[in-house]
Amino acid sequence: GSSSDQLFPFISDLDTREAVRESQVFFVLRGPPGSGKSTVAKSIHDTYGDISTLLSADDEGLRPTCTPHSDQTDCDTHAGYCKQIIVVDDANHNDLQFQRLLNIACTFSYVGMLVEPHKPWMPNLQEVCQRSHWTFTADELLEFKAKTEVGLPVIALFYGWFLTKKSVDCLLEYYKSFLEDLQKRPLFLEETISTFTPGDQKLPPILDIYFSRSKFSGGRNLLHCTANFTDYGQTPGAANYVKSSGLGRAFKLQLTALFVTPRTVGARVKLSRAQLPLFNFDESVSEPTTGDPVTPDPGSRAHVTLGCAPNVEPVQTGLDLMDILRSIEGDEKPSITLNMDLGKLCCYGKGRWMLDLTKPIPVNSLFSGFYAKSPPNDDSASHTLCEKESF
């Protein structure tokens, strides 16, 4: 590859290439004509070979335009076939087209990866015209840029560490085993009758039915640890992630505990020194019922949501974790302590349980953004299309 390709970790970094091979990744190349998109797209395709497919407007002879082509390549079809890695080098640059592509990634539970080549000649329109294999004048390119969103940063709804498919499968096995073990513990079941079930119901919940992943962003099998909720650029510092050296790179996360409450199940993440600067979540939150302030150590809120109770949103998981940690930091003694194969399980009342793992669970992840708007309903058939595919 060219020297510019080496700027992208998913091409140049061995660990990142391995993580991509364990994942479903949807690369979308973005930039004006002459920016080197096609070169980078081909490098990605060459790097991953048979497990990838390259959808290129150049191959179709489609000249870059501000409006969607009527004969545009059908990305939906390729995603439906479950090609593990999809690379889109597209000639459309209007915002609606990019949104369509990123929504497709969400629909089929791919990690969306926005790739924007930055060349030293980019500010020089005359040079861009010469570099592009399409025939443009500088005036045409100026008009093109004015009519499109190219040149403006695309900022995600949130940024985070997206677990590779291999790590998701591994973690969900731990999750399933954890719930099955809890379901057999009389002390756990006795405590949950009063906290998990409403009214006068005297039966404990069936945990693997009570908790679900139906409201997860990107589908029930796309697990992640949120680094920052950026709301498409509406939050302070959101634009910093666009230029972050961590974007598109692989990270190994350490999961140090599993926790369960009447609302959520999650895994606590211990961030390393290299990962902590990427974590910019507002952790100065209040406990939802009392309004008391929570002032944790940086990164304390880092977690992976594994399941939610009916009518509970995944954002609740972080609040539940902070609630448990506040009790622990306040020297609250556990009301129940149980030994499990994976570690020690402690109850802190109100249905709040934490299993401190004797040995942390390592998971591989890719740091990227979640770009989709109006994520599709997970119950739709589209989310199940890729679930049988294994690699």
UniProtKB/TrEMBL annotation:
Keyword DNA damage on entry: no
InterPro entries in the cross-refs: CNPase (IPR008431), CNPase_cat (IPR047325), Cyclic_Pdiesterase (IPR009097), P-loop_NTPase (IPR027417)
Gene Ontology biological process: cyclic nucleotide catabolic process
One of the Pfam families matching this protein, by short name: CNPase
Main subcellular location: other
Bilayer topology annotation: Lipid-anchor
GO CC terms in record: melanosome; membrane
Compartment(s) of residence: Melanosome; Membrane
EC numbers on record: 3.1.4.37
Keywords annotated in UniProt: Hydrolase, Lipoprotein, Membrane, Methylation, Phosphoprotein, Prenylation, RNA-binding
Protein name: 2',3'-cyclic-nucleotide 3'-phosphodiesterase
UniProt organism field: Eptatretus burgeri
Taxonomic placement: Eukaryota, Metazoa, Chordata, Craniata, Vertebrata
